[in-house]
Automatic annotation (TrEMBL):
Residues 50-269 form the Peptidase M48 domain. Binds 1 zinc ion per subunit. Belongs to the peptidase M48 family. The keyword Aminoacyl-tRNA synthetase does not apply. One of its GO terms (molecular function) is metalloendopeptidase activity. Its cofactor is Zn(2+). It holds the Pfam family Peptidase_M48. GO terms for biological process: proteolysis involved in protein catabolic process. Residues 1-19 form the signal peptide. It comes from the Bacteria. This is Peptidase M48. Keywords: Hydrolase, Metal-binding, Metalloprotease, Protease, Signal, Zinc.
Length: 324
């Protein structure tokens, strides 16, 4: 997945390198719970994110895969999904939502939703490649017209020469100049036609991409609400995230995402469709039937791998099933 973006703000071209979590498993000492150990071991931001992902994954049966979480050391109110279930989150959004775990859970669940649905985002490089391909298609479409025009020019030249072969040499020179001008005019007309076709195809591409992004964002908002509420977080957390975005300067100029009023309207409809209480009951039953997910902390303590319900390794899975 290239995809993709909380996909809440217009993303900068810079992207963090994919996290490389350490491979050693964090030992859980006797008499200590997974969460107690995590609180002692992890930086505050990663600890909160670990607890959020652990609950969301288990409540929604997203624990059949591992998740990678990275705190990006750059101040920006944003989050975005990346390859291999990686969810980088900027320092800025952690600061803004430092005391609102429900809103932060919605941010995280939104990005998890993009991965679950295999949403693909189109960055500027990929968009340029698509436009280049459209240009090739436009040229091929006009190329047939150019070939026909060239053939007509040859026929005209031969016929003209035959009809006037008794004329003086300077007359033939004048005919040649006329043919050259006709070919030049045809070339200019062909280029104009190519430009017109390319402009039309580019506009259609941008419209299609905008519709796809809007559909993906609305779908991820729905997943974020359902998944976070199932995990026990407040239903209004997602609304608070959208309100935060509405207050962010510059967001109103982001044309890559649906407008905040449209997303809030869609979210209110989703909240009516899925009452919080029924979601909470379903999520609690899933959590009670599973165990806390173990994790690996990277050496630089800025990224975290939350392992799937099968554990951190093949050995873990076998010993869980059959004993040591």
């Amino acid at each position: 997945m290239s995809i993709s973006c909380l996909c809440l703000l217009l993303l900068p071209s810079w992207r963090p390198a994919q996290a490389q979590p350490g491979q050693q498993e964090i030992p859980i000492s006797l008499g200590s719970t997974v969460y107690q150990r995590a609180k002692e071991e992890l930086p505050e931001g990663l600890y909160g994110l670990y607890r959020i992902i652990d609950r969301i994954a288990r409540a929604n049966q997203y624990d059949n895969r591992s998740w990678l979480m990275e705190i990006v050391q750059k101040y920006n109110v944003n989050a975005f999904g990346d390859d291999s279930n990686l969810i980088p989150i900027y320092n800025g959004i952690l600061d803004e939502l430092a005391s609102d775990s429900s809103a932060l859970a919605c941010v995280v669940a939104h990005e998890m939703g993009h991965h679950i649905k295999n949403h693909n985002s189109i960055n500027e490089t990929k968009k340029a490649e698509l436009i280049a391909q459209l240009k090739v298609e436009a040229e091929k479409e006009v190329l047939g017209e150019k070939k026909t025009a060239a053939a007509e020019g040859i026929v005209f030249a031969v016929a003209d020469f035959t009809a006037n072969n008794v004329q003086q040499a300077f007359a033939g020179s004048m005919v040649g100049s006329g043919i050259e001008k006709q070919n030049s005019d045809r070339l200019a007309a062909s280029q104009k036609r190519i430009n017109e076709i390319l402009a039309k195809k580019t506009q259609e591409l941008e419209q299609r991409l905008a519709e796809e992004v809007e559909a993906q964002e609305i779908a991820a908002d729905e997943i974020a609400y359902v998944a976070s509420v199932k995990a026990g977080f407040e239903a209004e957390g997602c609304l608070r995230v959208l309100q935060l975005l509405a207050q962010n300067s510059g967001f109103e100029y982001d044309t890559n995402h649906p407008s905040i009023p449209k997303r809030i309207e869609a979210l209110n409809a989703i909240m009516s469709q899925y009452p919080p209480q029924s979601l909470v009951e379903d999520g609690e039953s899933q959590i009670s039937a599973s165990s806390p997910l173990v994790y690996n902390l990277s050496q630089d303590r800025t990224s975290l791998k939350i392992n799937s319900g099968h554990g951190a390794s093949l050995t873990d899975d076998i010993e869980t099933r059959f004993g040591k």
